[in-house]
Write a sequence for this structure.
């Protein structure tokens, strides 16, 4: 096991500054950020669904690429989780004993890198292979998700930065490998019961 990362020495003052700002901010703003932090990942699921629905009208290969996106995101999450278990960084809300907007996760729920940021970044990068417009929306949402995780107090800034990088790289590598020759696989799957998933009406 890799020794636990000492988060406070990396960017602890930045983290405490953000948390203090959150405590002094209007209740409506904090409430919005808390809701986004907790449920915002659902937006990426909607974007993936929209991307797949549109891709079906383009062709089977495009639809197959779109269908690969959620699997790539799950794979990126798995990679990020392995890194979490190896590094074992204590959550900042426990290490620095500050009052945060969101309840501090369990003691063994490690902080580095952020799973939320990794999932968001992976979705944004993978969607780039489906639709640049959807990917642009996802990029903005990913940045908002990363910032929200620091705002509510459950992550250091370096946690979300690392999560964004890990998710983006994992998705980029996976999608590049998957989309090299999708036509053959699409033709085979179109001849099966999966045809409705690949071809629109």
């Amino acid at each position: 096991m890799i020794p636990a990362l000492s988060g406070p020495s990396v960017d602890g003052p930045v983290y405490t500054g953000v948390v203090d700002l959150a405590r002094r901010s209007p209740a409506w703003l904090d409430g919005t950020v808390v809701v986004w932090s907790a449920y915002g990942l659902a937006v990426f699921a909607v974007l993936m669904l929209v991307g797949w629905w549109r891709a079906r009208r383009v062709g089977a290969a495009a639809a197959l690429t779109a269908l690969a996106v959620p699997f790539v995101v799950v794979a990126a999450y798995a990679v990020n989780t392995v890194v979490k278990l190896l590094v074992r960084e204590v959550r900042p809300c426990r290490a620095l004993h500050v009052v945060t907007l969101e309840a501090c996760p369990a003691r063994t729920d490690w902080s580095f890198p952020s799973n939320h940021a990794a999932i968001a970044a992976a979705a944004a990068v993978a969607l780039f292979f489906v639709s640049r417009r959807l990917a642009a929306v996802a990029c903005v949402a990913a940045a908002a998700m990363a910032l929200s995780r620091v705002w509510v107090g459950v992550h250091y800034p370096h946690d979300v930065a690392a999560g964004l990088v890990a998710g983006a790289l994992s998705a980029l590598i996976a999608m590049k490998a998957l989309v090299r020759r999708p036509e053959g696989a699409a033709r085979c799957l179109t001849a099966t019961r999966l045809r409705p998933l690949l071809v629109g009406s």
Summary: The mean pLDDT is 85. The CA atoms of residues 53 and 70 lie 14 Å apart. The chain has ten helices and no strands.
